[in-house]
Design goal:
With 74 residues, this protein is an alpha+beta fold. The protein is built from four helices and three strands, in the order αβααββα. Helices cover 36% and strands 14% of the residues. The protein has a three-stranded antiparallel sheet. The radius of gyration is 15 Å and the shape is elongated.
């Protein structure tokens, strides 16, 4: 919206609908994890490792909220 319509970030109101949660968004595939870590740094903030199963859980809600806050979108 910013690029196409020249909207100010401060004028944009956004919401996130139902989505997969950290408890269910999980994998043990390192290549899958790289998709996220290549986009968002600070993986310790949004990826939680489960030692028993060698799986990691990704908190998509967190990274989306963080992006909104960075752009000052409420």
């Amino acid at each position: 919206m910013h690029e196409k319509f020249n909207s100010k970030y401060s004028d944009i109101i956004a919401c996130v609908g139902p989505s997969i949660k950290k408890c269910c968004f999980t994998s043990e595939d390192e290549e899958f994890k790289k998709i996220f870590t290549n986009i968002w740094n600070d993986e310790k903030e949004y990826i939680e490792y489960e030692k028993n199963s060698n799986r990691f859980h990704i908190d998509l809600s967190y990274v989306i909220k963080k992006d909104f806050l960075k752009l000052r979108i409420t």
